[in-house]
Structures are given as C-alpha cells and as structure tokens.
C-alpha cells in the first residue's frame, strides 16, 4: 500500500507561532509511520513557496494556532486546491476564531456564556486619552470586578489580563489590542475550569474524558499552560452526571458550528451552593478551540490516554474519514 503524504502545516503569523511548531512536532511523532509519510511545513507571512509545497501532499493536518490556519484563510486555499484537511471548514473556522461572535452565536442555542463587551481598535484609537479612561471606567461599572480583558482573536493567553482594580482596566485594554484589532472585556466567573475534547467521523462520535485545570496563578495563563505552573487532572473530579452533561454539550456544540476533526471546548462550572452535585451545577462556555494543542503534554493527548485510546489511531480516524467514499 502506498503511503499517504501528510503535510503538517504549522507556524502562522500570531504570537502562538512557536507553540504551533511544538504541536506539529507532537503530531509528527504520533502519526502511524506505516501508513503515512509526513513532513512539517512551516508557514509565516505570505510564503508562496510553502503554500505551493502543500499542494504536493495528499492531506493537510492544520496545527496553526492563530492566523491563517485557525481563522479559515488556509482552509479556503486548501479547498480551492482540492486538498483535504484535518479541521473545520472556512465558515466554522472564521466563526470560532472570533470568540465574541462565536460565544454569542452559541448563546442563541441555549449555551451559557459570561456577560461581555467588545471593543474595536478603530473606534478606540479615535478617543482622546481622557475619553479612553472614562470608557474603561464605564466598562468596569457594567461588567464588574474582577474581570478578564483579552484579545478577541488571540490564544495561549497572550494579551490576557485578570483585572482586579479599576485602574488596571485601561492598561489591560492597551495590552490586549497589541494582539489584534478587537478586545473582549468579560465578567469573571468563579468556579471549576474544565476542558473537553471530542471528534466525530462518519461512523462514530467520541467524547474524551474531561480535564480539570487547577492553578495557583491568577488564571490559566501562559506560564500555567507551558511552564508547568498548573495541575491538570484527567479525568476531572466532577460527578458522573456533570461529566455526561459536559460531554453531551460539547458534542452538541460540535454539531452547531459544523466542526470537523478534533475540537476542544473550555468551560467554567459554577454552582449555587457549596455542594457540587446534580442540577445545581451550571456549565458556562469559555471558548471553542478548533485547532487544539497537540504536544505530548497537551490536553487532547492526555485525554486520549485517559480514555484508553491510542493517539495514533485517533489521528488515523481523522485523516481517513476525509477519504471515505
């Protein structure tokens, strides 16, 4: 049997460029070497040579965290070139990349989200300094303290600040705008942070065990994600009923947005009283990630191992599903 040629497309133009390369190395190590001949293709800027090289492969496994691989741009190119790829299509990618638009879209389907305000750079830059200070104070009055101020399109917590005092709001907004043209100001939700990975093929729907995220940092920031300042507990220490509800909600979100391949959805579990049981637990969406991290220690490989599955087989499922007739 001839081996399929797999391009693992990584890099991109965001602050997550190097994180993406680590994910690519993980995928390369996970792939079935007897079935696939794989190579990492690094994209950065308008690299026409790299884009053209992708057309030499049978399949593109996209692991760019940020533009152009997470927002639909690369997917559009691959569709024009008739090259199958691993993740969701142009529309779903563009929607989920815009956290504010995605969360409010899903809210229309009954998904619980945190109250938030969207700021745009063009409008913000037109304000005088005194008006910026006034607007920052208005935002805090509307959404309360503490709150999160973050880029609408960034990842890996780049440009994200947990604001606990009103005088931190303006610097946090300016920091977030360095990552993109839109900023979200979001009400803080106190609770248990969890994340759930799922994938579907033509013949199966798989929800992985849930991971509980525990950190002594102010939030699950870059150091918690990549420098070990976190405890990641898989499976999460939550009641079975809550686990089942989270997995069902994640598969429902998968269908609503028209996802493909593996996605990971992050949540905060909140409750009305001290006892975390039954119906009093509320599942609140944080964000949907359609190109989740894939290093050996990332959430998805952890969850695959906890499920008693082999990541090699999962990736084979994702790839071969695109060639199913």
What do these coordinates show?
Helix content is 36%, strand content 24%. The protein has helices at residues 17-30, 48-54, 73-80, 90-97, 99-107, 121-125, 129-143, 169-177, 222-226, 240-257, 299-306, 311-321, and strands at residues 4-11, 36-43, 59-62, 112-113, 116-120, 147-151, 161-163, 182-187, 192-200, 205-207, 211-214, 231-233, 262-271, 281-289. Strands 4, 9, 10, 11, 12, 13 and 14 form a seven-stranded mixed beta sheet that branches. The two termini are 18 Å apart. The mean pLDDT is 92.
Condensed summary:
By secondary structure, the chain is α+β, with helices and mostly antiparallel strands. It has helices at 17-30, 48-54, 73-80, 90-97, 99-107, 121-125, 129-143, 169-177, 222-226, 240-257, 299-306, 311-321, and strands spanning 4-11, 36-43, 59-62, 112-113, 116-120, 147-151, 161-163, 182-187, 192-200, 205-207, 211-214, 231-233, 262-271, 281-289.
């Amino acid at each position: 049997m001839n081996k399929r040629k797999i391009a693992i497309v990584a890099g991109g133009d965001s602050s997550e460029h190097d994180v993406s390369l680590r994910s690519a190395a993980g995928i390369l190590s996970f792939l079935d070497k007897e079935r696939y001949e794989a190579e990492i293709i690094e994209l950065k800027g308008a690299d026409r040579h790299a884009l053209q090289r992708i057309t030499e492969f049978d399949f593109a496994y996209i692991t760019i965290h940020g533009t152009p691989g997470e927002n639909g741009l690369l997917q559009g190119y691959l569709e024009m070139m008739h090259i199958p790829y691993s993740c969701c299509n142009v529309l779903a990618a563009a929607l989920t990349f815009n956290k504010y638009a995605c969360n409010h879209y899903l809210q229309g389907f009954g998904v619980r989200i945190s109250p938030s305000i969207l700021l745009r750079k063009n409008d913000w830059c037109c304000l005088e300094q005194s008006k910026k200070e006034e607007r920052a104070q208005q935002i805090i009055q509307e959404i309360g303290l503490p709150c999160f101020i973050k880029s609408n399109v960034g990842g890996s917590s780049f440009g994200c600040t947990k604001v606990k005092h009103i005088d931190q709001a303006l610097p946090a907004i300016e920091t977030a705008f360095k990552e993109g043209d839109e900023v979200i100001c979001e009400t803080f939700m106190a609770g248990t942070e969890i994340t759930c990975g799922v994938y579907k093929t033509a013949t199966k729907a798989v929800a992985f065990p849930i991971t509980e995220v525990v950190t002594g940092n102010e939030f699950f920031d870059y150091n918690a994600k990549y420098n070990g300042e976190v405890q990641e507990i898989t499976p999460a220490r939550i009641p079975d009923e809550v686990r089942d509800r989270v997995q069902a909600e994640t598969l429902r979100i998968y269908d609503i947005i028209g996802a493909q391949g593996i996605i990971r959805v992050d949540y905060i579990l909140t409750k009305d009283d001290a006892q975390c049981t039954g119906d009093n637990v509320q599942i609140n969406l944080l964000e949907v990630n359609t190109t989740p991290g894939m290093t050996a220690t990332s959430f998805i490989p952890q969850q695959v191992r906890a499920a008693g599955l082999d990541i090699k087989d999962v990736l084979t499922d994702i790839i071969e599903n695109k060639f199913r007739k």
